[in-house]
Amino acid sequence: MNVLFIEDEKGMAKIVTDSLEYKGFSVRHCLNGKDGLNSFIVQKPDIVILDVMMPQMDGFNLARKIRETDQQTPIIFLTARGQIVDVLKGFESGANDYIKKPFSMDELIARIHLQLRQTEKHSSKKYTIGRYSFDGKNQLLHLDDKTTRLSYRESELLRKLCEHQNEVLKRKELLTELWDNENFFTGRSLDVFISRLRTYLKADPQINIINVRRAGYMLVIERKNS
Q: All domains of the chain, ordered by start, with CATH?
């Protein structure tokens, strides 16, 4: 598997690069965001791992640039920026995962494998949600002539809701599957993403994402009587 690793701290970069190569990955390392973007265009890696604070182009802007042309390649942030506003900004820019320093190499490798597995099984199925159509593969939500591009986690969360329409999706299971852990921080992130999906779907009053107290969420579509 080809990894594009973008990190301006040379000591950290060597440790991560050597560890990944020892595990069988092929790693291309870049020291700044601009070189990272050029390398992504030329190399077309299987996965991207990047820091936030980098010279010439920060990680958030780099992720956005990648997502302008590529919605499928997994992006993992590996950074000391751990405030909730930073994590949410990372996901908004197109990240699939966000790992805060300090970290363990075993955790990083496990998360890399998880993202690669999820990419392999990523559903190309399209869904009808009331008046909307949802393209899970390309992360696009359509309503008439309006198209909304979803982030990776928004898309995965909506896909889960669609697949289990009229069923309660347990909060714990969502956090474990989409965030890999359950704690107060990830719980708040889930609430934010549910709120965004409600906003995206508000043009159709028949659609409702219900908060089932102490259990989870349920997508309900009320059918009008003919």
A: 2-120 (3.40.50.2300), 126-221 (1.10.10.10)
